[in-house]
Design brief:
461 residues, alpha+beta, Uridine Diphospho-n-acetylenolpyruvylglucosamine Reductase, domain 2, Uridine Diphospho-n-acetylenolpyruvylglucosamine Reductase, domain 3, Alpha-Beta Plaits, seven-stranded antiparallel β-sheet, 16 strands, 35% helix, globular
Length: 461
């Protein structure tokens, strides 16, 4: 705290909570990637938007880089502070500010967790439908920054569809009220949408107006065992045509092995290379009958070898744990992660090319893949061999990622579906965006952050 810049900051923002202990610097200076050693200058925890503005203005004057920080559950290095940046944590700004029953809008501060938003919506008999495994620790600000998706995108879409308005402190310290909850607003550029997915490089999200909707109908959960890869898309097409899907998630036998070792319970006798967790509306008996008929047709076609339907909420939760517990079960191994997206129509051809590429590239490494097949999003996790140095492992994986990025480019896909670009994927941005697009993105960034203080090095150099 004797550092002159920090002394100046505390003088500028009386009462600002500022952390400088080593344990705090380590905790707040990294995200789930764990690939970069955290080395922030300090951690600022503002209590309101005015303090955020004051911090941003001070950072501009002092030329101190800022790293906006939410729950730090990201997997792209987007919340890493490894070069002496000031971490700007929104942790204390976690309140529900209001609810408008007419417009069905929930106004919140950016540091509120996704789980707390779910609970607040439930108190009003409504639903905020974006959902994924990190719901207890991820924050709305971080969800906005990466346009988070999750397990029910097939039904409800990504975060982008549920943001009615944003309050943002731009890189020059200006407070922006974007869209203000309007349904129709054709008064020029929609800067709200520009902020969504910008990874903290244009502004610091300090508040959001969230759209709420009616609770989902009663749902049923089914676990399916599939004998081959082509069956994934066949079963998805079959179920989508017969049922009102809320989610359609898949994982491999390798993923199942790890999540079972982590404490999940086996729910099906069949041992197959692929598995699907499907959730669908179950309002009436005819919905259950339609599900059984779809299952039977899948069996007759040779796409499904076995399946089980949850008989109660506890069993449904146990089936979902097989899918949602995968990331946590792999975390101790520090996997190298890819998060990719394609149009669903391009998925069958790409899956075959990807499977052949991974087999050639990682003949002696364990590759775990799973994802949101219903919206074209795959997660690929490569586990390092115990006898391979971390630097060698990462270098090998980076070479393979370039090949994967090239394949995605041929198939019209994206190197990042929902994790963002951050530090991890910035070298491959050109596989998804043209040179002209990247130039425009750089120009936009300069307009909002003229001195380059917001999350420098993330998205692109």
């Amino acid at each position: 705290m004797t550092e002159s810049r920090l002394a100046d900051l505390t003088a500028r923002v009386p009462g600002l909570r500022l952390l400088t202990e080593l344990t705090d610097l380590i905790h707040y200076g990294r995200d789930w990637t764990r690939r970069w050693g955290p080395a922030p200058l300090a951690v600022a925890l503002p209590s309101d938007a005015a303090e955020v503005q004051a911090i941003v203005r001070w950072a501009n004057e002092r030329q101190v880089a800022l790293v906006p920080s939410g729950g730090r559950t990201g997997l792209s290095g987007g919340a890493v502070a490894a070069r002496g940046e000031l971490v700007l944590s929104l942790q204390r700004m976690n309140r529900v500010l209001g609810f408008d029953a007419t417009d069905r809008l929930l106004e919140v501060e950016a540091g509120i967790t996704l789980h707390a938003v779910h609970e607040a919506a439930r108190e009003h008999g409504l639903l905020y439908p974006v959902d994924f495994g990190a719901r207890g620790s991820c924050t709305i600000g971080g969800n906005v920054a990466t346009n988070a998706g999750g397990i029910r995108v097939v039904r409800h879409g990504t975060t982008r569809e549920w943001i009615a308005g944003l309050t943002v402190v731009a890189g020059n310290g200006e407070l922006l009220e974007l869209n203000r909850g309007l349904v129709k607003n054709s008064s020029g550029y929609d800067l709200r949408q520009l902020m969504i997915g910008s990874e903290g490089t244009l502004g610091v999200v300090v508040g959001a107006q969230l759209k709420l909707t009616d609770p989902s109908p009663p749902a049923q959960t089914m676990l399916l065992a599939l004998p081959h890869m082509d069956a994934l898309m066949e079963v998805f097409g079959l179920f989508r045509s017969r049922l009102k899907l809320q989610a359609f998630e898949f994982f491999t036998d390798v993923a199942l092995k790890h999540v079972l070792a982590h404490g999940a319970q086996r729910a099906i006798d069949a041992s197959e290379p692929y598995y699907v967790v499907a959730e669908y509306d179950a309002l009436e008996d005819r919905d259950e009958q339609a599900a059984l008929l779809a299952f039977e047709e899948g069996v007759r076609e040779g796409w499904i070898s076995d399946g089980v339907i949850a008989q109660n909420e506890a069993q449904a939760a146990a089936l979902w744990r097989l899918r949602e517990g995968i990331t946590e079960s792999l975390a101790p191994r520090k996997p190298y992660k890819n998060d990719i997206a394609l149009r669903i129509s391009a998925m069958p051809a790409f899956l075959h090319e990807m499977q052949a590429l991974l087999a050639r590239a990682y003949p002696q490494m364990e590759v775990v893949w799973f994802g949101h097949i219903g919206d074209g999003n795959l997660h690929i996790n490569v586990l390092p061999p115990e006898d391979m140095a971390q630097a060698e492992f990462l270098a090998h994986c980076e070479r393979v990622t370039r090949l994967l990025a090239d394949a995605l480019q041929r198939h019209g896909g994206s190197i990042s579906a929902e994790h963002g670009i951050g530090l991890v994927k910035r070298a491959y941005l050109d596989s998804t965006r043209s040179a002209a697009e990247i130039a425009l993105m750089r120009g936009v960034r300069t307009v909002f952050d003229p001195h380059g203080i917001l999350n420098p090095g993330k998205l692109f150099e």
